[in-house]
Amino acid sequence: MVEPKPTRTLLSRLAPWIRFLITGGVIAFLAGKVNWPSLAHRFASAHPLWLTAALTVTLGSILLCGTRFYFVLRLQKISLPYLRTIHLTFVGFFFNLFLIGSTGGDAIRLFYLIRWFPHQKARATLSILLDRVFGVAALFGLALLFLPGATDRLRADPTFAPLASALPWLGPLGALLLFLGFIIPGFLPNLPLPQKLPGRAVLLDLLRGLRDTMHGGWNTVAVVLVSIGVHLLSFAGATLLARALDLPITYSLAGLILVLIFSASALPISVSGHGVREGVMIFLFLHLGLGTDPESAIAYSILIYGLGLFWSLLGGIAYLTLRSPSTPK
Q1: Neighbour tally for 92: CB within 10 Å
Q2: How high is the pLDDT of residue 329?
Q3: How confident is the model over 305-325, as pLDDT tens digits?
Q4: How far is CA 73 from CA 65, 189, 253, 325, in A?
Q5: Higher local confidence (pLDDT), 137 or 207
């Protein structure tokens, strides 16, 4: 007997439309506040050399994303060739452009993995999740390292003063969480799960996958190091963009800005963070002493998005050239 599909709630059906409305409303509000000739001048006066450098660095960051995914798959005992993993990574970035939210590309990658490796569905799903987890953990870990470089700016504004005061505690707390993250998975497969628990075999496979990931030797080390490299290059790209626009943004400050921008964009209240990203950037510029004109903040925000957009469009070509999932290499 086939179980009927669960009925979607009214909120779940309205959620996409609410996101579109919020995105459109925020963009319309910001559009009414912007001096358009000044914004156009900001873009026109950007230094091409620094823009090209930022674009090149961003490509390196995306390639490292694919490299991280390759090592995560190895930890899950999924044998996907390196070049095909890079190929699939670009396809994921492409679908992130127009699928609602920032996880549309993850769904596409999971679709192909399950089609290519139908007997490893649990491990394939876990690999997508862990790829995200390692990326986020590295991002916030680096933020803790770079925050002290922006302490003076944070203390100068009442909005960020509590964050500056919490810095001495955030470092040890982050180290403790990292330690627990590597230790706890080793005990998970030994949990006394009931024999008749529904999905017990799948759950045990997932727990073993977590253990294999955290205790995978050099593959685990590679995932951590590559995850750090991804964001170091992202911070470098944002710093180069700041130079292109003649903005007083240092490397550590660029890292802090990206952490806050990525966090705001990930909130499920808009379409891929559009509008919200620009609004948060204006707020940060005002409170970090980077300028009171919204045009500089919006230009910087759009160009940061544009770096990923350029290479993500190439992911469309990658998608068109990706062979059928039924014939994996």
Answers
A1: 27
A2: 45
A3: 888 888 888 888 888 887 755
A4: 12, 19, 33, 17
A5: 137
Amino acid found at 48: P
pLDDT digits (tens, 9 = 90+) for 185-214: 666 667 776 766 666 666 666 677 777 777
* 96 in Cβ contact with 102 (< 8 Å): yes
Question: Could you tell me if 198 and 231 are in contact, meaning their C-beta atoms sit under 8 angstroms apart?
Answer: no
Q: Cα dist. 92→105, 143, 163, 247 in Å? A: 4, 25, 34, 32
How far is it, in rounded angstroms, from Cα 93 to Cα 108? 10
CB-CB contact of 205 with 122 (8 Å): yes
Cβ–Cβ < 8 Å for 38, 245 = no
How many angstroms separate the Cα of 166 from the Cα of each of 142, 154, 155, 160, 163?
A: 16, 11, 11, 10, 5
Token reading at 299: 């230009």
- With beta carbons less than 8 A apart as the criterion, state whether 110 and 128 touch: yes
125 pLDDT higher than 80: yes
Burial of 3 (0-12, 13-18, 19+ CB in 10 A): exposed
